[in-house]
Amino acid sequence: MALIPVTTNRIGSHLPLLDLLPDEDQFSWVRGSEGLVGWGEYASIRVSGKNRFEEVRTWWHKHLETFSIADSVHGSGTGPVLFTSFSFDRNEESFAFIPKVIVGKKGDKSWITWIGAGPQPTLAEAPLALTSQEFLWSAGTLSEAEWKKRVGQAIEKIESGSVEKVVLARDLIATAHTDIDARPILRSLAENYPATWVFSVAGLIGATPELLLRLSRGMVTSRVLAGTIPKTGDDSKDLALAGSLARSSKDLEEHEFAVRSVADALEPFCSSTNVPDAPFVLHLANVMHLATDVTGALIESKKDIDVFSLLKSLHPSAAVCGTPRNKAFDVIDEIEGMNRGRYAGPVGWVDARGDGELGIALRSGQIDKNQIRIFAGCGIVSGSDPDVEVAESLAKFAAMQSALN
């Protein structure tokens, strides 16, 4: 059987990555001016069930065996790339795609990868003129009052000792007159939230501040976010709020649960790990988070460790599920009253070397023709107040709402 050519060439300066995307079959993982975008579907797979990570790995490796790769750039994200978006709950559908064309940028290096024997694809010379859409907002699965009641139920379970922390999510729905074009939404997110990773996979779009996993040359990094406070827009007030967040026993407790869950998940795969003693405050346009970067060096003798084995151990973390994980998941299943789909699941890319970056699909929305369903989640612990959690959810909705409006 003849192998299929996959070619990667260095290219000169070009448009911002998101300006290259067509209106369909689009994929993105962009932070600031760097990242990857892709378009065209060479191959795809849908999976569900407890073995979904292994099934995607097997499918990806089978395709890699059919490729003849000519890569003159040699770096993380060059050559063929898999974009993937996994569901939060293993019983829901997860997606993986190999795009026909990928354009990447890192530092002063830009490149293009394409599959097939054809000539190098031509890139657009100017951004497309995109018109914004108007949206009509409606309640999601639960009303605000009903969701607040569910938060109270979660607090009761925590105070009874059944579980230490539970993350509860809610949704809102926006409807347009015509099918939704993701591109202006992605560009708005990138402009207003440059510290986040702006993603698009199979209609799930968003700007996540939380990097679940970066694997590069045997080094693994995971950015943990837990503990949130809304910003006011007044610098002096926000500085004081940042200080109160860093001292908040409730938020520090929530953060510690999340950091511990990630460190424990990585420990069996690493010869050494580094967990900072205290979090830093990450400032975004709409909120501030307590943040910790957990890092580790993979055990060199274990050749079977890859992105997929790490994902299986890391997901779901306490930041999107709770502590203990299995008990928190049961509580979510019992009282959340909503299907998360791929919200709060891993989203990102993996290359042919096994390097990759995957975030947690937060600050996101799922597009279905002329409708988009956006999500927000809050970590509930012993000191939580339902009114405060409602306010936090509204602050987290603001990223997608402002991008749509």
From TrEMBL:
Domain Chorismate-utilising enzyme C-terminal per the UniProt entry, residue ranges: 144-396
* Catalyzed reactions per annotation: chorismate = isochorismate
GO MF annotation: an example: isochorismate synthase activity
Q: What is its EC number?
A: 5.4.4.2
* InterPro entries reported in the protein's UniProt record: ADC_synthase, Chorismate_C, IsoChor_synthase
What keywords were assigned to this record?
Isomerase
Is Metal-binding among this UniProt entry's keywords?
A: no
Which enzyme class? isomerase
| Pfam families cross-referenced by the UniProt entry | Chorismate_bind (PF00425)
Q: Spell out the family assignment given in the record's similarity comment.
A: Belongs to the isochorismate synthase family.
| Protein name, entry field | isochorismate synthase
Q: Please give the organism.
A: freshwater metagenome
